[in-house]
Amino acid sequence: MKVYIVTAKEMYDIDNYTMKKIGMDGKLLMENAGRAVSEKVERLIEKSDRICIFVGPGNNGGDGFVIARTLMNKRYDVTIVQVVPDEKITGDALYHKNVFVNYGGSILIAQQESEVHDVTVNSDVVIDAILGLGVKGDLREGLITAVEVINEVANRVISVDIPSGLPADEGMEEFTSVQADFTIVIEAPKVSAFLQHTALYYGVWDTVSIGLPLIAFQRYAKRNVWGYEQFKDCMPRRDPYSHKGDHGKGLTIGGSATMPGSIVMTAKAALRAGAGLITIGTSEKVINRIASQCIEATYFPIHEQNNHPSIPFEEFDAITIGMGMGRSGNAAALVAHVVEQTDCPLIIDADGLFHVKTDLAKLKVRKSPTIVTPHPGEMAMLLDISVKELLITPFYWSMKIAQTYNVYVVLKGKHTIITTPEGIQVVNKSGNAGLAKGGSGDVLAGILLALVMQQRSVFQALCNACFIHGKAADLLVEETHSDQDLMASDVIEGISKVYRTLS
């Protein structure tokens, strides 16, 4: 099942569509949310746990009243703490507050630090239902106090939909937020679950469904997660009568006297990922050194003093360039030549990105797909911004460069973001910290090359390649490695483990 990623506005639009167009009452949606979250909470707690539910204004607080009633009715020890005055509880939330009271529940209104501290320290589990998606700017004094006390003394914290105080969207650097151990996300994760500076506040997270219609997500949500189900559904299967020509003839250009290993890893990864034929175009000085490391590839010598080598580009189905090629003037001329002269999918990685920065407009006029694969430092370089600025708004900047220059963007990281020139965005779900080593990007470039030659949809190929890369690392760490000792060359060997899950 597709997991959508939403902004706060998109989630509000989906809710409004559900209520106004579909006709579902807001009180019913709140009931569904509270019951779904309660069911998940029961799997995370013990019957003997003392549970404190903090509620604030708005729908998140309303969900908290439903959770409290549901758990109380199942004989859990529940205390509900309201951290805003009574007049702040209105609408559907007030309705469910009154139902909770009519069930025999009692509410402690606590806004003083000492009151919040006492009830928190005497609880085994805190359920955070203070604030939802509407956070903009600094929290009010009473809410900040509750958040800070929870973070300081709570034993375990389960947040409802989003940790209170955390922005749902990208772009906000300063905030005060609950640090959750577990977050039960309602329907769809928010953008901040995939940002480096906000993702950790969620702790472990999982989603629950409350009955919002699929058509609403299809109408308003612009991003989704790419995981095993998507990989399995669209990864092409080989025809038993196919031959090597059916699976693409790829050219990978790069390597140098000081970095010969990069291009080897790219070529080996491409072959392991399913490419039919791979040719390595590299400095004639290093061919003999690297040929023994990748005996399945053929080689094309590139003379370092020849800025425009006679490479038969028309013979290849896709090309990747940049891995380990260095930053000399001759390398820059070679990249420019490849960009201008090729008429097939072109993947630009590593030093190739450094060289295209001076004339990104040339990418826009290419007739065939262009894929750029920067890590955050390279992306910031291309955009002339700081890495910090990029990481606060990576979805925005990925979209901007993709649409401005008509390229596919694979922004690598813990949550790799794949963006099409049309503005479709996907976040890859696989991968672990073992990939944070030199050479991992070279391996990904090879997998990207192989899969671009296997599938009609470039976008699906990119998504599947990123998933395979990360999943290979995941399976290796689960079975034989750790995220400390994992090497890029290990990931190449792990590709077969991912493919075997399809059999």
Automatic annotation (TrEMBL):
<feature type="binding site">
    <location>
        <begin position="132"/>
        <end position="138"/>
    </location>
    <ligand>
        <name>(6S)-NADPHX</name>
    </ligand>
</feature>
<protein>
    <recommendedName>
        <fullName>Bifunctional NAD(P)H-hydrate repair enzyme</fullName>
        <ecNumber>4.2.1.136</ecNumber>
        <ecNumber>5.1.99.6</ecNumber>
    </recommendedName>
</protein>
<dbReference type="Pfam" id="PF01256">
    <property type="entry name" value="Carb_kinase"/>
</dbReference>
<keyword id="KW-0521">NADP</keyword>
<keyword id="KW-0630">Potassium</keyword>
<keyword id="KW-0413">Isomerase</keyword>
<comment type="function">
    <text>Catalyzes the dehydration of the S-form of NAD(P)HX at the expense of ADP, which is converted to AMP. Together with NAD(P)HX epimerase, which catalyzes the epimerization of the S- and R-forms, the enzyme allows the repair of both epimers of NAD(P)HX, a damaged form of NAD(P)H that is a result of enzymatic or heat-dependent hydration.</text>
</comment>
<dbReference type="InterPro" id="IPR036652">
    <property type="entry name" value="YjeF_N_dom_sf"/>
</dbReference>
<feature type="binding site">
    <location>
        <begin position="59"/>
        <end position="63"/>
    </location>
    <ligand>
        <name>(6S)-NADPHX</name>
    </ligand>
</feature>
<feature type="binding site">
    <location>
        <position position="161"/>
    </location>
    <ligand>
        <name>(6S)-NADPHX</name>
    </ligand>
</feature>
<feature type="binding site">
    <location>
        <position position="441"/>
    </location>
    <ligand>
        <name>AMP</name>
    </ligand>
</feature>
<dbReference type="InterPro" id="IPR017953">
    <property type="entry name" value="Carbohydrate_kinase_pred_CS"/>
</dbReference>
<feature type="binding site">
    <location>
        <position position="128"/>
    </location>
    <ligand>
        <name>K(+)</name>
    </ligand>
</feature>
<dbReference type="InterPro" id="IPR030677">
    <property type="entry name" value="Nnr"/>
</dbReference>
<feature type="binding site">
    <location>
        <position position="375"/>
    </location>
    <ligand>
        <name>(6S)-NADPHX</name>
    </ligand>
</feature>
<dbReference type="InterPro" id="IPR029056">
    <property type="entry name" value="Ribokinase-like"/>
</dbReference>
<keyword id="KW-0511">Multifunctional enzyme</keyword>
<feature type="binding site">
    <location>
        <position position="164"/>
    </location>
    <ligand>
        <name>K(+)</name>
    </ligand>
</feature>
<keyword id="KW-0456">Lyase</keyword>
<feature type="domain" description="YjeF C-terminal">
    <location>
        <begin position="227"/>
        <end position="502"/>
    </location>
</feature>
<keyword id="KW-0479">Metal-binding</keyword>
<keyword id="KW-0520">NAD</keyword>
<feature type="domain" description="YjeF N-terminal">
    <location>
        <begin position="11"/>
        <end position="218"/>
    </location>
</feature>
<feature type="binding site">
    <location>
        <begin position="412"/>
        <end position="416"/>
    </location>
    <ligand>
        <name>AMP</name>
    </ligand>
</feature>
<comment type="function">
    <text>Catalyzes the epimerization of the S- and R-forms of NAD(P)HX, a damaged form of NAD(P)H that is a result of enzymatic or heat-dependent hydration. This is a prerequisite for the S-specific NAD(P)H-hydrate dehydratase to allow the repair of both epimers of NAD(P)HX.</text>
</comment>
<feature type="binding site">
    <location>
        <position position="442"/>
    </location>
    <ligand>
        <name>(6S)-NADPHX</name>
    </ligand>
</feature>
<comment type="similarity">
    <text>In the C-terminal section; belongs to the NnrD/CARKD family.</text>
</comment>
<dbReference type="InterPro" id="IPR000631">
    <property type="entry name" value="CARKD"/>
</dbReference>
<keyword id="KW-0547">Nucleotide-binding</keyword>
<dbReference type="InterPro" id="IPR004443">
    <property type="entry name" value="YjeF_N_dom"/>
</dbReference>
<comment type="similarity">
    <text>Belongs to the NnrE/AIBP family.</text>
</comment>
<comment type="subunit">
    <text>Homotetramer.</text>
</comment>
<keyword id="KW-0067">ATP-binding</keyword>
<feature type="binding site">
    <location>
        <position position="324"/>
    </location>
    <ligand>
        <name>(6S)-NADPHX</name>
    </ligand>
</feature>
<feature type="binding site">
    <location>
        <position position="60"/>
    </location>
    <ligand>
        <name>K(+)</name>
    </ligand>
</feature>
<dbReference type="Pfam" id="PF03853">
    <property type="entry name" value="YjeF_N"/>
</dbReference>
